[in-house]
Amino acid sequence: MEELKTHPRRLKRLEDFHQAEAEPLNTLLQGQRRLLNEIYSKQKAHDTRFETISNRFGSVDRQLNATESNTKAIKNDIFNIQSDIMFLKDNHKEIQIDISKLQSDALVLKTDVHELKHDVTELKSDMSEVKEKLDLVLTKLS
User: Fold this and answer.
1) pTM score of the predicted model
2) Residue 1: enclosing H or E segment and its boundaries?
3) pLDDT tens digits, residue range 60-94?
4) Residues 27-48: pLDDT tens digits?
5) CA distance linking residue 126 with residue 122, whole number of Å
6) Which one of 26, 59, 90, 122 is at 20 to 30 Å from 9 when CA atoms are compared?
7) Helix-helix angle 67-141:2-65, to 10 degrees
């Protein structure tokens, strides 16, 4: 009878002991699982990079096999570049002409502004005279 009473306690201690022993193993297994996932990830990246390198070698091989058509394409590109350069030169000349026109217009505007300032000064002077005369008239009327 005594044994039956202690049996559940022994069983509980045994379970606790096994759980305590299993914890480091679980931690170790989780670490190994994480490490395996990292290895898998790195292997996948390695495979992808290897496939990229393989594709690049294939591309280089195709380019080497197409030397003649590449040479024609390069000559065509050079012609197009020369054409673009001529366009840029012409466009640059037009821009310079437009800048000269803008500078000329700016000088005209500067002169106009100066004249307007002079006119405003004259108007102020005229308004002062008118005000003085108006003041005199108002004084005489009062």
Assistant:
1) 0.39
2) none
3) 888 777 777 878 888 999 999 999 999 999 999 99
4) 878 888 888 888 888 999 888 9
5) 6
6) 26
7) 100
The answer to whether 49 touches 56, Cβ cutoff 8 Å, is: no
Calpha distance 13→18 (Å, rounded): 9
Rg over alpha carbons for the chain, rounded to the nearest Å, is 48
Query: How far is 125 from 136, CA to CA, in rounded Å?
Result: 17
What count of residues does the chain have?
142
- Given this model, what pLDDT does residue 33 score? 87
Counting Cβ atoms within 10 Å, is residue 26 exposed (0-12), middle (13-18) or buried (19+)? exposed
- How far apart (Å, rounded) are the C-alpha atoms in residues 111 and 118? 11
Kindly list the distances between the CA atom of residue 50 and the CA atoms of 37, 47, 55, 62, 137, in Å, as whole numbers in the listed order: 20, 5, 9, 18, 102
Q: Quick one: three-class SS letters along 89-126? A: HHHHHHHHHHHHHHHHHHHHHHHHHHHHHHHHHHHHHH
Phi-psi category of 136—alpha, beta or left, where left has phi over 0 and alpha has psi -120 to 50?
alpha
Q: How far apart are alpha carbons 11 and 8 in whole angstroms?
A: 5
